[in-house]
């Protein structure tokens, strides 16, 4: 098993591309230049939608038969913030005392570099007899609105015969040390935008008005106090968290006509976005009957809850981590959302990457040794996945 491709050098090249969403800034070119000589067929895919920025994506594949293992990730990053607050400029990819600094070092250009390097070496080692296919789905729209990225690339893959049998997303999944956590599912997430409508009036004559603030406050309290469930074996209890409550009313002696609140619901597999929307409408209907206020509720869904059960993908990833690090990883469904929420509709998916301690922070950084170890883990995952599944696909 040759070790030809340096993931640290590749990570530095990616970090030096200031690819703040939705800018590509040359990051996909860096990857295509590395992949094409190893035999990968590369497709540059640009997608558009009215009201959003164009997004450049890359799909690369070697092999035409199954099993088909896909690695997914993103090269876009969040803004660096105050660059003067950084120990090293955020897009210079400086290594100091064995640590790589830069925006995207942890989230997730180093992971992309590690799985690209692992895939290239695997392809070169098996150039004469590929046991299956490896592909790479790279988007520039994960940190943004996620409209013209992974979802549309997956649709394109489906239309062109590239649906994978399994996928690993290189999100930074670990909490304290490389290898401690694999995410085999995610909670669902949705936002509710609630408007209460009443009748404007003078605060001295509340009987002549209908106060939407009071009605909305009652609804907010009931929704936030509700015990949605007790959680499951794999998920924590569902949470309802309000983030805004506003009337836009500067006057102290005026009862406003409308009041607005926004909440985020993070939910487990006991619920769906549709069931939670019905629940919110039922709560609002009860308060409307009690108060006379009218409620409008608009829902925005980020993703449904999902769980990838133990099987060839989960077992292979966990075994490879244990073999390389000596650590038995914990399976987790915690945290926010990722592009795995789209991939799960096409194939089993898990997430595994570096320690997430400094993601989105000033002085984002990762030990060089962790990047090198991650490449070894990814390479072992590729080898062991095909060893486990090639016979099933034959």
Protein architecture, described:
With 394 residues, this protein is an alpha+beta fold. The chain has two domains: 7-186 and 305-393, Aminopeptidase (3-Layer(aba) Sandwich); 189-302, Alpha-Beta Plaits (2-Layer Sandwich). Helix content is 31%, strand content 24%. It is built from nine helices and 19 strands. The chain has helices spanning 7-15, 27-35, 109-125, 150-159, 212-225, 273-291, 312-325, 340-343, 368-393, and strands at residues 41-47, 55-62, 68-74, 95-96, 99-101, 133-139, 166-169, 181-183, 185-186, 188-197, 201-202, 239-246, 254-255, 258-267, 294-303, 306-307, 330-332, 349-351, 365-367. Strands 1-2-6-3-7-18 form a six-stranded mixed sheet, with helices on both faces. Strands 12-14-10-15 form a four-stranded antiparallel sheet, covered by helices on one side. A hairpin with a 7-residue loop joins β1 (41-47) and β2. The model has no long low-confidence stretch (mean pLDDT 96).
CATH architecture of the largest domain: 3-Layer(aba) Sandwich
Radius of gyration based on Cα positions: 24 Å
Number of helices: 9
Using the coordinates above, name the CATH class of the largest domain: Alpha Beta
CATH topology type of the largest domain: Aminopeptidase
Give the class from helix and strand content and strand pairing.
alpha+beta
The oligomeric state of the chains shown is: single chain
Percent of sequence in beta strands? 15-25%
What distance separates the N and C termini?
A: 24 Å
Q: Which range best describes the helical content: under 10%, 10-25%, 25-40%, 40-55%, 55-70% or over 70%?
A: 25-40%
Order of helices and strands: HHEEEEEHEHEEEEEHEEEHEEHEHEEH
Which regions are unreliable across 5 or more consecutive residues at pLDDT < 50? none
Strand order of the largest sheet: 1-2-6-3-7-18
């Amino acid at each position: 098993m040759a070790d030809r491709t340096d993931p640290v050098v590749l990570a530095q090249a990616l970090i030096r591309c200031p690819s703040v969403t939705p800018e590509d800034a040359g990051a996909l070119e860096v990857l295509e230049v590395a992949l094409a000589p190893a035999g990968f067929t590369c497709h540059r895919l640009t997608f558009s939608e009215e009201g959003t920025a164009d997004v450049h994506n890359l799909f690369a594949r070697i092999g035409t038969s199954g099993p088909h293992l896909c690695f997914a990730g993103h090269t876009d990053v969040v803004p660096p913030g105050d660059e003067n607050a950084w120990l090293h400029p955020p897009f210079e990819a400086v290594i100091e005392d064995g640590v790589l600094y830069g925006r995207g070092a942890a989230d997730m250009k180093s992971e992309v570099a590690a799985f690209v390097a692992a895939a290239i070496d695997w392809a070169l080692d098996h150039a004469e007899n590929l046991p299956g296919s490896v592909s790479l789905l790279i988007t520039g729209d994960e940190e943004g609105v996620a409209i013209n990225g992974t979802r549309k690339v997956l649709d394109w893959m489906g239309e062109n015969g590239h649906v994978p049998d399994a996928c690993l997303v290189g999100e930074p999944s670990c909490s304290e040390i490389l290898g401690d956590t694999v995410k085999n599912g995610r909670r669902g997430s949705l936002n509710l935008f609630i408007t209460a409508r009443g009748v404007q009036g003078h605060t001295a004559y509340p009987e002549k008005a209908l106060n939407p603030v009071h009605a909305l406050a009652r609804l907010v309290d009931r929704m936030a106090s509700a015990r949605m469930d007790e959680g499951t074996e794999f998920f924590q209890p569902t949470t309802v968290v309000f983030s805004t409550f506003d009337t836009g009313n500067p006057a102290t002696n005026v009862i406003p006509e409308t009041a607005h609140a926004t909440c985020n619901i993070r939910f487990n597999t006991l619920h769906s976005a549709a069931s939670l929307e019905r629940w919110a409408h039922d709560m609002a209907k009860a308060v409307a009957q009690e108060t006379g206020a009218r409620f409008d509720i608009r829902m925005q869904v980020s993703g449904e809850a999902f769980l990838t059960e133990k099987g060839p993908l989960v077992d292979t990833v966990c075994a490879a981590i244990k073999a390389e690090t000596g650590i038995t990883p914990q399976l987790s469904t915690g945290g926010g959302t990722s592009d795995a929420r789209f991939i799960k509709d096409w194939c089993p998916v898990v997430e595994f990457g570096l320690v997430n301690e400094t993601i989105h922070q000033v002085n984002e950084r990762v030990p060089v040794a962790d990047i090198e170890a991650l490449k070894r883990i990814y390479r072992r995952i590729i080898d062991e996945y095909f060893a486990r599944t090639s016979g099933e696909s034959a």
